[in-house]
Amino acid sequence: MNRPKRMLVENIAWAREIAHADPQFFPRLAQGQSPKVLWIGCSDSRVPAESITNANPGDLFVHRNIANLFCPSDDNTMSVLEYAVRVLEVDHVIVCGHYGCGGVRASLLPLSNDLPHVNRRIAPLCALGERHRKELDTFTELDARANRLAELNVLEQVRLLRQAPVIADRAAAPLVHGWIFGLHDGLIKVLASGYDQGCAREALPSANADTRETVESAGF
Ligand SMILES: [Zn+2]
């Protein structure tokens, strides 16, 4: 069986299983959506928003791109944010990066001539890396540098989102959070909590995975 066909077969099995467990699930789903969270994550296949947070269809409004970038000049990203905030009225915006991010890693390497679109897309990441070059150069291993830049990138997107007029000018603005996902243990670490805005940079832990706090130990 080819892969698309297998996916369609799995879809039928999934739909039947859900309907069997909860006959009202799909009728409810068809009535509309009212997600409380906008998720901005990386396109990486290993970081599916719903799976890693045990969320259901209808729980998350999702925007994913390479290296979970929020670009105010990009209509794709901005339209998602605008709709989420002004129409769906989400309570939270979560930027979730991940360690081992290929997009972040690529920004630390010579750009590929075969990937002009990717190059343009990660240009802000390259600039961010330059701004933090002194700190990043303290890591001898490329992977460690990339992991630290992945953290800094999440915080930068949080900063940009918090100052975006769509959010900043709103009376009941959604809280913006910065998270990062560990591929090696499946756990999410909170880098910036919307509940204590302004403390994110001071609270930022090191890129050393061994000293990472889990979501549970951080009290979230
Ligand atoms: Zn990634």
Describe the structure.
- This protein is α/β, with parallel strands linked by helices and 220 residues long.
- It folds into two domains: 1-32, no CATH class; 33-218, Carbonic anhydrase (Beta-carbonic Anhydrase, Chain A), CATH 3.40.1050.10.
- Helices cover 46% and strands 14% of the residues.
- It is built from twelve helices and five strands.
- The protein has helices spanning 3-21, 25-31, 49-52, 75-87, 102-106, 116-121, 123-131, 133-136, 142-163, 165-168, 200-203, 215-218, and strands at 37-42, 60-65, 92-98, 175-181, 188-192.
- It has a five-stranded mixed β-sheet.
- It is globular, with a radius of gyration of 19 Å.
- Mean pLDDT is 91; it is low at 198-220.
- The site of zinc ion (ZN) has 7 residues, from helix 5.
SSE diagram, text form:
Blueprint: H1 3-21, H2 25-31, E1 37-42, H3 49-52, E2 60-65, H4 75-87, E3 92-98, H5 102-106, H6 116-121, H7 123-131, H8 133-136, H9 142-163, H10 165-168, E4 175-181, E5 188-192, H11 200-203, H12 215-218
Parallel strand pairs: 1-2, 1-3, 3-4
Antiparallel strand pairs: 4-5
The chain binds zinc ion.
Provide a compact summary of the structure.
This protein has twelve helices and five strands. The protein is an alpha/beta fold and 220 residues long. It binds zinc ion (ZN).
Label this structure with key terms.
220 residues; alpha/beta; Beta-carbonic Anhydrase, Chain A; 5-stranded mixed β-sheet; 5 strands; 46% helix; EC 4.2.1.1
